[in-house]
Amino acid sequence: MESPKHAGDIAVAVSQAYGVDTMFTLSGGHVFPLYDGAVHQNMRILDVRHEQSAVFAAEATARLTRRPGLAVLTAGPGVTNGVSGVATAHFNGSPVVVLGGRAPRSRWGSGALQEMDHPPLFETITKLAFTGSGADSIGQDVEMAFRTALAPHRGPVFLDVHMDDLFGPSAEYDSETLTPSPLEPDPDALAGIARLIAEAERPLLVLGSDVWMDRAEEAARDFAEEWRLPVVPNGQGRGILPAGHELLVTRARGLAFSQADLVVVVGTPLDFRLAYGWFGGKEGAPLARVVHMVDAPSQLATHTGLSGSASGDLSLLFWGLGAACGTAGVNPKAYAPWVTRLGETAAAAIAEDAPLLESAADPIHPMRIYGELNKVLADDAVVIGDGGDFVSYAGKYVEPRRPGSWLDPGPYGCLGTGLGYSIAARLARPSSQVVLLLGDGAAGFSLMDVDTLVRHRLPVVMICGNNGMWGLEKHPMQMLYGYDVAAELQPQCRYDQVVTALGGGGELVTSPDEIGPALRRAFDSGVPYLVNIATDPAVAYPRTTSGV
Fold first, then answer.
1. Phi and psi of 129, rounded to 5°?
2. Strand ranges across the sheet with 44-47
3. pTM for the full model?
4. CB-based contacts of 90, cutoff 8 Å, min separation 6
5. C-alpha 339: how far from its chain's center?
6. How does pLDDT run across 311-351, given as a tens digit for each residue?
């Protein structure tokens, strides 16, 4: 006779019904029944060396596959170690479910090991944070977690379960796995936006991460191409228009944002990355009208005046707006000179890059690294950025060729995402190149999880831009005070030897001519491999905002 199901079995079964195939975790006794359930039901268990990497891996899984990610954290410090990962998922709108262990119900209040009331820690950075009500309700509780995480606007959910409840018997549960119904946009709002486009002489379309997450990338590209709108992508909106597309004007971003008279922002907040929604107003140009289109009303900007707004399923928004543009008489010829000007400016900027992308400077200029990397990146490569100054160059000089192939920490700006993201990327895209770009500061947060890559046979190419300092802080402090403190790291620290000691491969590169051969060795190695490149500490990324 088959033994009764325990609550861990049911929790895993519901997770699988929602498309989860991997449990990211770090071993802990409070959650053993979840591991047992995964073994019974053939769910992959991928154990990491720090709980932050488990949550980052779950978040990257959600962002790459557009299915929910699952992290399982043991009680107390296991849960608190995952807080930054949950906050990152919150700011990125990633559907992640974090199942936490919890001290036994039967001992609650008596000082059991790692007894802590976790949900209050997560109330402001999740859509829902709650404690399971018992073994008999585990199916309903886990299903509520997944449904809530997936409903627009997506985001993380935290659920902890008392240890004795997880071990307790629980009846089979038939998950309904209901998907959220698409939110229909207001046709009058779309008609108003179409009229604004019809009146514009210098329109601009910004495509953000939620366009990808909402599976609206084809609708977005079709809309941009039909109405000949110049596009600046943001976050995971990168790649929706591939590198080289005539309407992609990322390299004319400064001109576009300063001279546009209408900016239509879709699927991303009007935060510091987009000048808080203030466009135009330069060189005598008036301030631009701003339109915000998002997947849920809760995401509409409230800190700045909008000329138009709409919310709903983003594919429906693009299709509806396209039809409304036809009715409104939008004529791309009216703003064709603007599109041509932006395209010419972008092309000139790309041409001007060539000398530094091929720089023979010694010490190595960071741009030479990206010049060499672009020569060996495949069309379907997944590129991950984890760092400050060094990774800022990637955002400018590495242009994805396909959507869903770029990952950075997002607006929360949390360092240490890289190894967790790399783990997830290798599982989600087993046949693609996976490239992790690390600043030497960021490397210190998570490099021990190379051990996870090695143990689980997950080859990833890591490139460390090693300038021996916290560049994002050192240069501004020098400018402000004439000195800097707490900004120095070891020059040419041998992070590559850390990787080789953990079972991977690596090498230190100090000459620009060695970058290309080292990258080819890394891709050919078939193991986690770190190319540790000593870069010129005097070179700072020429940023125009501090994000404040």
1. -135, 120
2. 44-47, 22-25, 69-73, 96-102, 157-162, 128-131
3. 0.96
4. 125, 126, 155, 156, 412
5. 29
6. 999 999 999 999 999 999 999 999 999 999 999 999 999 99
Residues constituting the chain? 548
Q: Nearest Cα to 158, choosing from 109, 124, 108, 115?
A: 124
Picking from 390, 395, 467, 398, the residue whose alpha carbon sits closest to that of residue 433 is 398
- Closest by CA to 5, choosing from 137, 142, 167, is 167
Proportion of the chain above pLDDT 90, given as a percent? 91
Nearest to 204 by CA among 220, 187, 224, 186: 224
Structure tokens that stand for 98 in this block: 């974090």
Q: Which two tokens stand for residue 95?
A: 């559907």
Structure tokens at 303: 């800190």
Per-residue DSSP letter, 513: G
DSSP string, 113-150: TT----HHHHTTTSSEEEE---GGGHHHHHHHHHHHHH
Residue 347 belongs to what H/E stretch? helix 336-357
**pLDDT tens-digit profile of 203-232?**
999 999 999 999 999 999 999 999 999 999
State the DSSP string of 385-439.
Answer: EE-SHHHHHHHHH---SSTT-EE---TT--TT-HHHHHHHHHHH-TTS-EEEEEE
- pLDDT of 472: 85
DSSP SS3 for 336: helix
DSSP 192-208: HHHHHHHH-SSEEEEE-
Rounded to a whole number of angstroms, the distance between the first and last alpha carbons of the chain is: 63
